[in-house]
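FIELD: query
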Amino acid sequence: MFHRNIKLIIAALIFATAVWQFTESNIGNGIFLLLLTLIPVFLYFKNEFILLAFLQLRKQNFPGAQKWLAKIKNPETALVQKQQGYYNYLQGLMLSQTNLIQAEKYFKKAIQLGLNMDMDLAVAKLNLAGVAMSRRRKLEATNLISEVKKLDKQGMLKEQIAMMKEQMKKI
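FIELD: result
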C-alpha cells in the first residue's frame, strides 16, 4: 500500500506525537501512540500484500493470492530484500502449477535473495529439484534433494522426498 520509506516516516511521526503527548501529561495517549507506532514498523518488515497472499494460499485460493501479489507494482524498490525473496517464492509457487520454466526462475531468485524460514527454503529447493528432474538434470536434482533433507528438520517433506527419489530411479 505504502512505500517502505513512507512507513518509516509514518512511524516517526506517530512516535513524535507520542513524545508530545507525554510532555503534555497525557500518558494514556502517549502509550497508545507508542503501541500504534509498532504497526508501521511491523509492516516495514512484513509487507501487507505478501501476508494477505499467504492467507489466500492457506485457503488454496491461488487466484486470490495472485491478485494480492499483483498489487505490488515494483517489488525491487517497494520491498526489502527478504520480502523480495518471499515475493519471488510466492510467484514461483503460483507458476509451478502452470509454467515450470518461469517458476524455476522465481525459485532461484527467492533462494538468492533469502528466505527467513528453513521450511520455505526447503520447499523452494524441492520445487527446483522437481523442475531439474523434469528437465532430466539428475545430478542437480540429487544435490537439491540432499539439501532439502538437511533443511527439513521436522520431517514434513519426507513423503515428497521419497516420491522424488522414486521418480529419479525411473529417469
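FIELD: remark
The CA atoms of residues 12 and 160 lie 46 Å apart.
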